[in-house]
Amino acid sequence: MTTTAVSPEALLSQYADGPTRLEAALTGLTEAELDLSLADGAWTIRQIVHHIADGDDLWKTCIKAALGNNEGLFTLQWYWDKPQMEWSESWRYASRGVESALALLDANRHHIVELLEHVPHALEKSIRLQPPHDAEVRITIREVLEMQVRHMTGHTQDIQAIRQANAV
Fold first, then answer.
1. Residue range 21-31: average pLDDT?
2. pLDDT top residue among 163 and 85
3. What's the pLDDT score for residue 36?
4. Domain 8-165 in CATH: superfamily?
5. Could you tell me the pTM of the whole model?
6. Which residues pair with 135 in a beta bridge?
7. Domain boundaries, the chain
8. Which H/E stretch holds residue 56?
9. Could you give the CA distance from residue 70 to residue 128 in angstroms, rounded to a whole number?
């Protein structure tokens, strides 16, 4: 895993600001417009929102585990065993409203930021991670936050591209 030269304060600010940036990307969309995508079979805006919130919720567990048991092994093998679209179908992303997903994302981000602000040297704490089909690595909380910031940024850009392609 690689890290950047962003200060801890700036990284926490970017992480905390994610829900606000996502909600800004959704501003003005109707329920019907949440079901727009770039192409048939591609994820809709609604599905992207649920994916962001659920992914963030899963990685929150990694952060908390690293804070409490740096010798522990974190794995999402049960999740990585299925393609993303299957989770989208299993968890009914296409038919659910986004309000609870947005609320969960906001609550999780605030909870994690507050927790990290109270734990000395929190961003340097780490845990063992077993990625799919790869050797075990050690991942720091900083790396998890950076990954989640990139994930949010990428999917927010996806939403903006969908809006632009559909003129909404």
1. 98
2. 163
3. 98
4. dinb family like domain (1.20.120.450)
5. 0.92
6. none
7. 8-165
8. helix 45-68
9. 7
